[in-house]
Amino acid sequence: MSTQEELLQTTKELIAFQTTEDQSGQLRACANYIADFFSETGLTIERFEHEGIPSIVVTKGTKTPTVFLSGHFDVVPGDPEQFVPTVQGEKLFGRGAMDMKSGDAAMMHLMRDLAQTNHSVGLMLTGDEEIGGFNGTAKLLEAGYLSKVAIIPDGGEAVHLVMKSQKGILRLTLTAHGVNAHGSMPWLGENAIDRLIQVLPMVEDQFLDLEKHPADHWVTTLNVGRIQGGLATNQVPNTATAHFDIRFPETDSPDQIETRIQSVLPEGIEAVFSVLGPPVAVAVDHDLARLFLDAIRKGGREPQWGVEHGASDGRFFAEYGTLVLISQPDGGNLHAPGEWVHIPSIKFYYDVLKTYLDKVARE
Ligand SMILES: [Zn+2]
Asked: Which residues surround the ion ligand 1 when the cut-off is CB under 5 Å?
């Protein structure tokens, strides 16, 4: 079995790859590193590439093991110094330290350590979770890589915080149309930006005021993230567009949200909705979920169910009825400067997974 020192070393090596969306060479180099990690293990290593996004699947020959360990090796952008892993006391700093190269390292070591055992387990690592996962996990599941359980270290910010739900994602684009005219004679045109701006508060009113949210914010939220409109200062613009990010819990639905929004839209405003993913809800009384909590307890911590506002690749598995178990090594500042992971918790996470697999995945 792997030691804390070995897990730390692999995490550091993974962090050193600058695997952001714009660095296809680094994404590929990282996939090569992962493939090399499994050379001479006797495991089946398969490489995929969809739309330039590399993925790697490691199995014992079956596409349908009991458990898939699932991770992503892409990261959000960071300052150059974040790609130089740094240890301070028990903390490892670096981009991806927590999200999620420490989790990747724990799963890679476990998969390798179990290469010759009778555990029914596989590993999939993809390169596009941070930009939607559509060419990584989504494609692998479509290709028939499916399991009863997926373990994903991508939420919770602590090993013992297991996610019982993640919100779904809905995107909305509103386009206002108008009529062009010269900026010196606005009475001759119809200003699309003005129209759009009038509509924004009407749409926002359909959602709970941020100040009135319950403590856990477990309600549908909306954020306008991008506005575009107009070509020149001296012109009355004829189109303006706003892009919204809507996150919803399992108690709401894209249909209900769409109805609410359509009911307040005036004529001349076009709305396009697209569902990026449904919410993920874990059956907390499922035997395979309870055993995961038992494994955490056996390690010496009291497990807790939590909720996660960000989405993960778990939503793709949920569509196939796979039980999704999300928790991760302890850390903080994910997607921010100073991202870190607690080094002993990488080993703790590894041990929890090992205990769990011993229980549920032995043939
Ligand atoms: Zn992540």
From this structure: 99-100, 154
